[in-house]
Amino acid sequence: MFEATLRYNSNSDKHPVGTSLEYLDSVLVPARMLAANAKALPSNLQNYADDAGVSYYIDPSLTDFRVGDDFRDDSGSVRRWHWEYAEQVDPLLEELLTKQENLDASQLPDSHVETLTKASVAFQEGFVVTQLEEEVGKYDSLSDPDSYRPTAVIPWYHKIRTPSDIEVNDTILTAARDAASLPLKPCLFITKDILRSSTHLDELLSLLSEHNIEQCFIWVENLDKHETGQHDYEHIARFVSDLADAGVSPHFYYGDYFATLLSHLGLDGTIYGSMYGEEDAERREQRGGGGVITRYYLDEVSDFVKIPAVVDVQQRVGAEMCECDVCERQFDSWQDLAALENDDDENIQTPMKKHHLRIRWRQIRQVESESLTDSLDRLESDYQEYVMPFSRSNQVADSKSLNYLPCWQNALEAIVSE
């Protein structure tokens, strides 16, 4: 079954996630967030497992320190969530963050890389269960603690741009294998340039084979649907197919609807945020304080669209209001959605997040149940129906188009015809 995984990045996701468990298979929680919410978040994860069988992974967070200063405040101090994580992992991490600006695995002695990798594995395998045991220990004992451990361990991952970066990941995987009792599910964090090199892709396959890896995450940096061409999508599809043929179960670390379509070629899951979270890059600078623009996930174009544009496009098409339980409860028409846009952030963002989770789940299960031909036929039909209304709407930015839809279709058709 194709695994639908939510990137649980913010405490503001608690309500949307807690009321959408039937639309999720698993969640990915950043280690820094877990360390900073050491009582509440483990309890939430326990409830997700007990109530709906939703499992979890922990992003190791060590990668956050490789470049930039996003993890530091204006004074240069490490931000609270990251520092509390460092305190939980190992004194070496605290020492390095105090003495140097960044933490690049390729610039550290192998002994440091091994120490931090093993400490990160220990955190992932034990932190949640330890917190739960401490909490119930006041009154009772935790039954079946293994059921509250993560599905797999994600070792510290180092961005792969050159063959030397593959060697760094080899060192990390060796240390992680020595330390882990749970299965490993490493993340291959790669650039589009790496995907264009068959030699480098063969080296990645060899890396996984040498460490007997049976499952992995794939993070292709900057995989923005509006800026990625057909050839890059072909490279991605071919790599997914090659991984599946090699007996490795691949899972996208960031993925949009194209990831869902790749289930036909062997992709076994994808991760996405409650709002956005379909692609990303390493953060180099401190984030601004501005809020996130609320957008509506429009099923037919598989993208987040500004609410005025959604209303205008859907009225031009003559589309019925979305029938998910969230929209059905909140809106009688697209104009009702437009009226909600002026509400405060919490009132508008919560239903938009819940709507998105339901639509992504529906898309995943629909694609899972049909042939590739049927999926591509629907994709082409949606494109033909929406391309003109979308391009004619004065609410849609001139820089936005639906060109990614035929791009996806052509890329998949090219690969399956090889």
Topology diagram in text:
Elements: E1 3-7, H1 14-18, E2 26-30, H2 31-36, H3 40-52, E3 55-59, H4 80-89, H5 91-99, H6 110-136, H7 163-179, E4 187-190, H8 192-195, H9 198-210, E5 215-220, H10 230-245, E6 249-252, H11 257-261, E7 269-273, E8 295-298, E9 303-306, H12 307-317, H13 325-330, H14 334-340, H15 345-368, H16 372-392, H17 404-416
Helix pairs in contact: 3-6, 6-7, 10-17, 12-14, 12-16
In short:
This protein has helices at 14-18, 31-36, 40-52, 80-89, 91-99, 110-136, 163-179, 192-195, 198-210, 230-245, 257-261, 307-317, 325-330, 334-340, 345-368, 372-392, 404-416; strands spanning 3-7, 26-30, 55-59, 187-190, 215-220, 249-252, 269-273, 295-298, 303-306. It has 418 residues and is of the alpha/beta class. The two termini are 26 Å apart.
